Automatic annotation (TrEMBL):
Ranges for domain Enoyl reductase (ER): 12-323
CDD domains assigned: QOR2 (cd05286)
InterPro entries on file: ADH-like_C, ADH-like_N, ER, QOR-like
Name this polypeptide is given: Quinone oxidoreductase family protein
One Pfam family here: ADH_zinc_N
Domain of life assignment: Bacteria
Record key words, sorted: NADP, Oxidoreductase
Keyword NADP in record: yes
Species: Candidimonas humi
């Protein structure tokens, strides 16, 4: 069976994402075939397409997050049946496609109250936010936390969930519209990082005490400032590098305030299927109960993947992007 997919043959600008017909394999032992209904677009995809990450063998089909419907099962695949709604994240890529075959252990069942669009745009972000807030550093009531890119996909979830856990959330954003969004999604304070020194503002807000945790997906431009914002024994969780890679530094910089540092991979943190499904159910419950509210979603046809990437790279963007086959 041949169906349309987005194929990347060489790293470069968004126009490298081209629609082609590809073969969809029949499911083998322990595998299922899925017809995609919604495909998430993430910054990871941009890094792969641009050549910043060399983790997809080319030519290849990008994409690490999607939702859909099981259409066939292979021998020994017993957890799912045709017609089941599922979502997944994967390091094996291949999501920018009409359909695919994948190991059933990768799949997470979708409850009735969670739409395919919500799952495809918030599963990776939500699992990341859960792991950061509950496992990497377990946020406690009255903690002070700093969240960079507070109006972004993961950032908005971090702010809402940390606030629900009783933390005082300080977010950095790039403009007034994003500041308003952040304040409506869990932030007690929103810092305009282009107009203000965020380290000085955090110091002012916390009366010089600093934050117990800083969640930094920006990387090079904010890393050392985030470190300066930490309270004694505070933790810096770096989980992205939208401004570039963090340069090498002396680990003894952590000594002065007995700070700690992590660089989490959600795929490693949630590498066991049962754990991943359990965390996903906690995420879906948080959405169902209104603890988390999804941001706006912008839809693109699968064939318009290049346009979606341009939107992803726009600093004016807020909310999630998805492709619809």
């Amino acid at each position: 069976m041949r169906l349309p997919a987005i194929v990347l043959r060489g790293a470069g600008d968004p126009d490298q994402l081209r629609l082609e017909d590809v073969d969809v394999a029949e499911p083998g032992p322990g595998e299922v075939q899925i017809r995609h209904t919604a495909i998430g677009v993430n910054f990871h995809d941009v890094y792969v397409r641009s050549g910043l990450y060399h983790t997809l063998a080319l030519p290849g089909i990008p994409g690490i997050e999607a939702a859909g419907v099981v259409t066939a099962t292979g021998p020994g695949a017993t957890r799912f049946r045709p017609g089941d709604r599922v979502a997944y994240i994967t390091r094996q890529y291949g999501c920018y496609a009409t359909a695919r075959t994948i190991d059933e252990d990768a799949l997470i069942p979708l409850p009735d109250g969670i739409s395919d669009e919500l799952a495809a745009t918030h599963l990776l972000k939500g699992l990341t936010a859960y792991a950061l807030l509950h496992e990497v550093y377990a946020v406690k009531p009255r903690d002070r936390v700093l969240v960079h890119a507070a109006a972004g996909g993961v950032g908005a979830l971090l702010c809402q969930w940390a606030a629900a856990k009783g933390a005082c959330v300080i977010g950095t954003v790039g403009g007034l519209e994003k500041a308003d969004f952040a304040l409506r999604h869990g932030c007690s304070h929103a810092i305009l990082y282009r107009d203000e020194d965020f380290v000085a503002r955090v110091n002012e807000i916390t009366a010089g005490e600093g934050v117990q945790a800083a969640y930094d997906s920006v990387g090079k431009d904010t890393f050392f400032g985030s470190l300066a914002c930490l309270a004694p024994t505070g933790h810096l969780a770096n989980f992205g590098q939208s401004s570039g890679a963090v340069p090498p530094f002396e680990v003894s910089l952590l000594f002065k305030k007995s700070n700690s540092l992590s660089r989490m991979s959600v795929f490693v943190q949630l590498r066991h299927a049962d754990h991943r499904r359990e965390v996903a159910q906690q995420l879906f419950k948080a959405f169902a109960e209104g603890v988390l509210k999804p941001g706006p979603m912008q839809k693109f046809a699968l064939a318009a993947a290049a346009q979606a990437h341009r939107a992803m790279e726009s600093r004016a963007r807020m909310g999630s992007l998805l492709l619809v086959p």
